[in-house]
Amino acid sequence: MRYINDDLKDKTILITGGAGFIGSNLAFYFQNNHPEANIIILDSFRSGKTLSNGNLKSFGHFKNLIGFRGEVISGDINDKDLLLNLELNYKFDYIFHEAAISDTTALEQDLMIKTNVNAYKDLLEIAIKHNANMIYASSAATYGNALSPQIVGRESPQNVYGFSKLCMDNLSKEYMKKSNIAIVGLRYFNVYGPREYFKNTTASMILQFGHQILAGKNPRLFENSDKILRDFIYIEDVIQANIKAMHPKESGIYNVGTGRARSFQDIVDILQKELDTTLKCEYIKNPFIGSYQFHTEADISSTKEKLGYEPGFEMEDGIKAYVDEIKRVYAQEVKK
Ligand SMILES: NC(=O)c1ccc[n+]([C@@H]2O[C@H](COP(=O)([O-])OP(=O)(O)OC[C@H]3O[C@@H](n4cnc5c(N)ncnc54)[C@H](O)[C@@H]3O)[C@@H](O)[C@H]2O)c1
């Protein structure tokens, strides 16, 4: 579905993190709906390097981009020479900034702040020089365990990832005061959908439960999973928010969720219905009690008002739209 009527002929759009989950979906949105636009992807891709928690340092994967016809640049947003080259040799009209250490459990505080905050500032400077609007990924992790509904202005990050995203938002507010470009921060809640598989264990629980069920395993949930609630949002709605953010009524920081919290038990029940299974759930003790978010639900009133955003996917709709892809990935990637 096309969300804006712009003619993007002769427009150049940079997508950082374009080989990742959300960035690659954005790239295909433009390719399919605005084939006249010039799309450039910058991503460090995966190299095999890991963080101290054992997860990959970056999750970008070429398979997310099979079929993409635009320019693809492999590079690190921390590389100042590369950024200077981009500044001098391109003229961007829009920058969608998705590149980040996206792993919320990463412990490397130095690398997290450098990559998520300091490199973002360098990209903002390029946006200003090019007079390009900046749309960047913030996160619901900025709220930590703040009470629901989560409202912009009431943050309390509990990990360095959430802290880094809040630093990006604070930096953006300063730049909003002193520049003429539109700057929009989108605080995604729990996103799920096609092209997330290569995030490995950091992919959504929707995909992970889907694959457990397809393997014939009993879904394993924490005790009281009907009371552990999150605002799960389908990728299509995240794309909608990004596209509408190209022309905001006002620069700002906006929540991107459905505005409705659903439980982990709901995920498994809807998946079993879609996959036509009746596996018995197994319940295990939640080892994270005390440090775990039990309820997230985005307040999306300002997102609706300032961006014209209107979520279109309840969890039932999102899983229905996604289930064939969950099966394809299981057959072609997991089982092979
Ligand atoms: N998926 C979610 O539920 C969610 C929720 C809140 C916020 N976010 C944010 O949205 C953005 C996109 O997330 P995603 O889910 O697509 O994650 P992802 O890990 O799939 O995408 C991030 C991409 O950035 C690339 N990258 C990492 N470090 C880089 C560097 N130094 N230089 C260049 N590229 C680099 C990775 O290779 C990867 O392709 C991230 O900023 C993330 O923090 C995601």
TrEMBL record:
Task: From the record, give the transmembrane residue ranges.
Answer: 12-30
Q: Which Pfam families match?
A: Epimerase
Q: Name one GO biological process term.
A: carbohydrate metabolic process
> Which EC class is the enzyme in?
isomerase
Its Enzyme Commission number(s) read: 5.1.3.20
Q: Which domain of life is it from?
A: Bacteria
Task: Give the record's keywords alphabetically.
Answer: Carbohydrate metabolism, Isomerase, Membrane, NADP, Transmembrane, Transmembrane helix
Which residues are in the NAD-dependent epimerase/dehydratase domain?
A: 13-257
- InterPro entries attached here? Epimerase_deHydtase (IPR001509), Heptose_epim (IPR011912), NAD(P)-bd_dom_sf (IPR036291)
Which GO terms fall under molecular function for this chain's record? ADP-glyceromanno-heptose 6-epimerase activity; NADP binding
**NCBIfam families in the record, alphabetically?**
heptose_epim
| Descriptive protein name | ADP-glyceromanno-heptose 6-epimerase
Organism, per UniProt? Sulfurimonas xiamenensis
User: Gene that codes for this?
Assistant: rfaD
